[in-house]
Amino acid sequence: MMFRRWLLCLALLIPGAVQAACSVVSTTPAAFGMLSSIVVRTTSQPSSTLNAGLSCTGSLLSLLTSNDHFWGTVSSTQGGLVGPTGDVISYTIYANNSTSYPLTRGTAYDFARNGIIDALGLLNGTTPKTVPLYLGTTIGSNVAAGVYTETLSIFWNWNYCSGIGIGAICLGRDIASGTTSLTVNLTVSNDCTITAPNIAFGSAPVVSAFTPVTGQTINLACTKGSAYTVGLSDGQNAVSVGGRRRMISGSNYLAYDIFKSAGTTRWGSVGTARRASTDAEVNPGNGLGTGSQIFNYNAKIYTDQSTPPAGTYLDNVVLDVGF
To answer: β-strand 81-82 against 88-89: which pairing, if any?
Structure first.
């Protein structure tokens, strides 16, 4: 009898799995990269980090039980990514690579639930594995250009069975906690949306009969706070740089030009021939982001030229915005 009891005691002490070990480690930053202000405002952008600071190694259960927990609490002194002028880009943090499991700042989220830790295989094998986090920007942020950053504090605490004996008996629990920080960044670049209708002079039998085109507008919605200039190229058929613009039909030309506002100052692409954002007729000044700035212009066909042969005359002028 004594011999049998001794064997039974040995069997109960033999572990059926290697001890698992978790620890808090330094994170890998999450970067959204460089995005235009228009993209940031209109489209949710994804980012992620493969290492949010919790690392585990070892062999354990194939599935966690309801008594096993891996809590992560994300907090920050900011309400999102903050830029050089104080603008904020909001974003949401997710526990997996879908939008199914969002985290609430300041509230502990149990990564042991919903199969998240199990799917990662965090506690199976001998190679250290880390918990990832996923992020997505919130649509509607009208912000200035610049670098936007936030440093998150992540408090990890866990309580799980770290060793299994014969008969699936838990031989011990790993209970610990720690805090790490995660840097998130995004760079916003200047951009514009441009509305520039075509110019149509209509038709006439002679050059002197063409009516000037007046009341034309170009609408620009450029990055909030951006100072910029707007230029119009000389077109594809100009006589020379800074010379008259010309439309073409076959081998024949029809000279015309485009002028600032309602005046006679030619609108060009170089130096003072450009127009500054402060020169807009509507909402002059720096860019508004969501609102339009309107530039008026007029165009006319020069009447001091010979009337060319009948035909359809065309030209292409490039509008460029410089920041």
So the answer is: antiparallel
- Assess whether 174 and 201 both reside in one domain: no
* Domain count for the chain: 2
CA separation for the pair 301, 316 (Å, rounded) = 15
Range of the domain at 272: 192-322
Q: Which amino acid is located at 24 in the chain?
A: V
pLDDT for res 62: 54
What would you report as the CA-atom Rg of the chain, rounded to the nearest whole angstrom? 33
Distances (CA, A) of 248 to 24, 75, 148, 307, 317: 70, 64, 49, 13, 13
Instruction: State the burial class of residue 6 (Cβ atoms within 10 Å of its Cβ: 0-12, 13-18, 19+).
Output: exposed
Beta strand pairing call for 30-36 and 252-260: unpaired
pLDDT digits (tens, 9 = 90+) for 75-128: 999 999 999 999 999 999 999 988 889 999 999 999 998 888 877 877 766 788
Give long-range contacts, CB 8 A cutoff, 24+ apart: 248-252: 248/313, 248/314, 248/315, 249/308, 249/309, 249/311, 249/312, 249/313, 249/314, 250/309, 250/311, 252/308, 252/309, 252/311, 252/313
9 found inside a domain: no
Quick one: 44 and 179 in the same domain? Answer: yes
- Residue found under tokens 């600032």: 260
Amino acid at site 55:
S
Q: To the nearest 10°, the Cα dihedral for 158, 161, 162, 166?
A: 180
Q: What is the pLDDT of residues 106-118, one digit of tens each?
A: 999 999 988 888 7
- Domain holding 226: CATH number? 2.60.40.1090
